[in-house]
Write a structure and sequence with these properties.
Layout: H1 2-9, E1 14-15, H2 18-24, E2 36-40, H3 45-58, E3 62-65, E4 81-85, E5 101-105, H4 110-119, E6 122-124, H5 136-142, H6 149-152, E7 159-165, E8 171-174, H7 187-191, E9 200-210, E10 214-222, H8 225-236, E11 241-248, H9 249-259, E12 269-277, H10 282-290, E13 299-301, H11 304-321, E14 328-333, H12 339-353, E15 358-364, E16 369-375, H13 381-397, H14 422-435
Parallel strand pairs: 2-4, 3-4
Antiparallel strand pairs: 1-2, 5-9, 6-9, 7-8, 7-9, 10-12, 10-13, 11-12, 11-15, 14-16, 15-16
Helix pairs in contact: 1-3, 9-11, 12-13
Organism: Mycolicibacterium hodleri
Domain FAD-binding PCMH-type: 32-211
GO biological process, one term: respiratory electron transport chain
């Protein structure tokens, strides 16, 4: 099989080296590991299609890998798979500044797309802390959200067109020069959020936006999480909202200890707010915070350097938590009315299973998309599994969704029924069978 892959992409882009494969078979958190037979790195959509045809003929399973920033073992192989990396599909085309769009290869990093947009005086709407590693193809496959979702929406709302190689080796090229195109099925949307189970995204047409001329950032401190949620509810519906982030004071304390970057305000919970647009939003910010139950005065940043300082804790959270070893991560969306109840119940739940663990909660409060990380959570496999299942049940009991922006991957496939009905899952399986009859694309993801 290696020779046949090399004939398609070139020998230098195929490897079976055990050390290389071992590094590719562990996920971003370091908690989940798998095994693979080979790594192949095609350089064009035609090469991707040829690799898929070859793997079909060889009856080989395929796990697709982009930046490998999945937090739910979405790129961890389970069947001695062929690892298909999109890293060479990284070309970025010229920006159409009139229509405000750009075409990028699936392997282009978010940071590269952002730089290209900024150079053209525009902005790309999705932003993640993992911007230097995350690829736009992977972000589309999980319908990633991130720090700007409250303003621009998820990744799917940025996609104007795409190219995708199917399991049979054919390539769907869905591009349109018009904004309104309602011709037949919206095939492109099927592959957004499908986590690589229906096809391999090879390139995307992405929407860009004008750059805001004025921006103001603030952090406000709260002791009462419900009070923070009430303020967040007001801001998320405000014209000009650009970011709305919840930060746990425990995260701020860890960031201060390891990076020397302390919290800008007091309180058990902090709300990072950013407003942007063509007008000054200072008065709007002041009015909405005027009657809030704050701890002290909010910290406000008007110039770029002050705004950068206010963002530092939120930007650094994920890396700082990893200092203590791989955290056990939960990604959920919850009704805003249930967030405080969930936070309290989750803390009690963790104490019962892992008394030494430190629960840290942060995330995109405008959407109720929260990331619960358990630091210093050292359990054997059976105990960890029990804790994970209990937390999933708690999320469901709080009327939440067990997967918000990280996807289902391998880690959450057993909990799919907590957020989807039997009819939903049957319909999804029908789509999987239609696009990938032999189940060879990302076979460990979504379904067992």
């Amino acid at each position: 099989m290696t020779d046949r892959l090399a004939a398609i992409v070139g020998a230098r882009y195929v490897t079976t080296d055990p050390d290389v494969l071992a590094g590719r078979c562990v996920d971003y958190t370091g908690r989940y590991r798998g095994k693979a037979a080979a790594l192949v790195r095609p350089g064009s959509d035609d090469e991707v299609a040829a690799v898929l045809r070859m793997c079909r003929d060889a009856r080989a399973y395929i796990t697709v890998q982009g930046g490998r920033t999945s937090l739910v073992a979405g790129t961890v192989p389970e069947h001695d798979d062929v690892l298909l990396s999109t890293e060479r599909l990284s070309a970025i085309g010229e920006i159409d500044t009139v229509e405000r769009r750009i075409r990028a290869g699936a392997g282009a990093t978010l940071a590269a797309v952002q730089r290209a947009a900024v150079d053209a005086g525009l902005v790309f709407g999705v932003d993640l802390a993992a911007r230097d590693s995350a690829t736009v193809g992977g972000m589309a496959s999980t319908n990633a959200g991130g720090l700007r979702t409250v303003r621009y929406g998820n990744m799917g709302e940025q996609i104007l067109g795409l190219e995708v190689a199917l399991a049979d080796g054919s390539v769907v090229r869905r591009h349109s020069e018009v904004r309104s195109d309602n011709t037949g099925y919206d095939l492109a949307s099927l592959f957004v959020g499908a986590e690589g189970t229906l096809g391999v995204i090879t390139s995307l047409d992405l929407r860009l936006y004008p750059t805001a001329r004025q921006r103001i950032t603030a952090i406000a401190g709260f002791d009462d999480l419900n009070a923070l949620v009430d303020v967040g509810r007001k801001f998320r519906d405000t014209d000009g909202i650009a970011a709305l982030e919840l930060i746990d004071a425990r995260a701020s304390a860890l960031t201060a200890a390891h990076l020397g970057v302390g919290a800008a305000v007091g309180g058990a919970w902090q709300l990072l707010i950013e407003l942007a647009g063509d007008v000054d939003h200072t008065d709007v910010l002041a009015d909405l915070l005027n009657d809030a139950d704050l701890i002290g005065e909010p910290a406000v940043g008007i110039d770029t350097s002050a705004q950068y300082r206010l963002w530092q804790v939120r930007e650094a959270v994920a890396d700082v938590l990893g200092v203590y070893g791989p955290p056990l991560k939960f990604d959920a969306s919850l009704p805003l009315s249930m967030i405080a109840e969930f936070a309290s119940a989750a803390t009690g739940l963790v104490a019962g299973y892992a008394p030494d663990a430190i629960p840290v909660l942060f995330g995109h409060i405008g959407e109720g998309n929260l990331h619960l990380n358990l630091v210093r959570c050292v359990l054997d496999a059976e105990a960890e599994g029990a804790l994970y299942s209990a937390m999933m049940s708690l999320i469901a009991a709080c009327r939440g969704n067990v997967s918000s922006e990280h996807g289902v991957g391998t880690r959450k496939r057993d909990y799919l029924t907590m957020s989807r009905t039997d009819a939903d899952i049957t319909a999804m399986r029908a789509l999987k069978t239609a696009f990938d009859p032999e189940g060879r694309l990302n076979p460990a993801v979504l379904f067992d």
